[in-house]
TrEMBL record, chains A, B, C:
It is a multi-pass membrane protein. It comes from the Bacteria. Keywords: Cell membrane, Membrane, Transmembrane, Transmembrane helix. It comes from Massilia varians. Residues 6-76, 94-167 form the Glycine transporter domain. This is Glycine transporter domain-containing protein. The keyword Cell membrane applies. The chain crosses the membrane at residues 6-23, 30-51, 57-79, 91-112, 118-139, 151-170, 176-195. Its main location: membrane. It is found in: Cell membrane.
Length: 201, 201, 201
């Protein structure tokens, strides 16, 4: 398994895991647990692809990820109970930050490939990174957490997306631009988490 | 009128009817009653078609169904009051079960025609069958009922969709596969309703 | 700047402004304020374009409007506080009515260009005019206001859309049909507001 494949699976699992937890908190049944986990993991990329009119969707090409979440949903309750003891909050935040970086920059890249102008491309990257959680909260009948907790989550993605766009503009080698921007987002997110930074309201 | 046309109209009416009732319970006005009924009746198929990038949408081709719901919304209050006395819960559950079977399998069939792999096709069938109600509940600001009541509604659709897919794989005559799978879903749904089966949480 | 450009910007600003206010009422942070304003301003047209499979989206072509809302979100709190004192409710209602008229008829026109039948085209116009507010309310975890306040907001759009469709059918000059129908919607909306008309429930 390549490194990127491993990171991808980790990021999807973290998304699905946060969906599992939210769905259980809402006392949902098996169908709800699976659907909410699925929406959290793939919702951001799916919305981006609908806005860009890109097909096939990510989870259609990678059917195996959809099946993985399905299997996990079937065993969700004991898995979550076990994971709660094994997995520390620190590990979840790290994996989530890595996912945010990777998916945001990948979203920008997809938007550029579809011919989007720069500002729109930066927004598409943020949408890819955060709208899984937004849709999860809407389905769970909550005001989306990312819109109200004042933590600079989307803003880390936004800044890193512009780093990536600027690198592209000034001829930096594409692969390096992608990885360093993703790393920048993940690092910035972890720093703001470490020091518990908040935006003013 | 052919049989399939009749069943189709019945299924749409049942969807719209459940939208009417939910919208009235939320004290919505005429615009809300129409919109929620429309979303309940056509939301599942519309979401599927957006995900598959299929156009024109069902209710664009069959404009007459949209107009029918519009007219019903105009007379909704007295109609619902009357129907409550005429239509038994049993009849609604039966019509809804028939609709679930028919639309789910039709959703799988549309997904296969769009080149989807098997698991995705089975999911598209479930989406077609249940997301009208999911979107209704989101617009009405509720946690979707189908995600939390523990009744095996989506699961009946899922199992029947796989029956249909397996029949296709083993060369069963398409029309027979479609009808028997739809019947299987409707029958299973009615059985689980009859015996009030619940999934564990 | 042409007149239509000016009206367009006014209508978008009014949409964004109502998003700002709702997001602040929900105590959202910068990310929420921007996203909700954006969804309110562009949500209706975006949903219409997704249903019609039209691309690029309006806010992709007019990136400058997205940037404008972004800048306004950055200064939203003081701006809203200032605007509250400068801008009367009357002015907001007028600008909103003008936007409703313009966007509804533009939505019908886009739907006709995409080959939609008449009733569907009239619905697409209403969707363009009202779904920004509907999506705003869903994200803010409220039952959409336009579905429950009994004010004939969507109905003004619906009637004006049919005026436009009928003018087209009877060979009225397209530009005149568009402007007079938009004016009809705006005027009707202002009249019903002036006399505080309500629909029965």
């Amino acid at each position: 398994m390549t490194l990127i494949k491993f990171i991808e699976i980790m990021a999807i699992l973290v998304g699905a895991f946060s969906g599992f937890i939210e769905a259980r908190r809402k006392r949902m049944d098996l169908v709800g647990v699976f659907t909410v986990a699925f929406i959290t993991a793939f919702g951001g990329g799916t919305l981006r692809d609908i806005l860009l009119d890109r097909r096939p969707l990510f989870w259609v090409i990678h059917q195996e990820y959809a099946i993985l979440i399905f299997v996990l949903a079937l065993v969700a309750s004991p898995v979550i109970r076990t994971l709660r003891h094994i997995v520390s909050e620190r590990l979840i935040v790290i994996a989530d930050a890595v996912g945010l970086g990777l998916f945001s920059v990948a979203g920008v890249s997809a938007a550029l490939a579809a011919g989007m102008p720069l500002f729109i491309a930066s927004m598409m990257g943020v949408i890819t990174g955060i709208f899984g959680g937004v849709l999860r909260d809407i389905v769970c009948n909550e005001v989306p957490m990312v819109f109200r907790d004042g933590k600079p989550y989307a803003i880390c993605a936004f800044l890193g997306n512009w780093l990536y766009l600027m690198m592209g503009k000034y001829g930096v080698e594409p692969d390096f631009a992608l990885w360093s921007s993703a790393l920048f987002i993940s690092g910035l997110r972890l720093l703001t988490w470490k020091f518990d930074l908040r935006m003013g309201r």
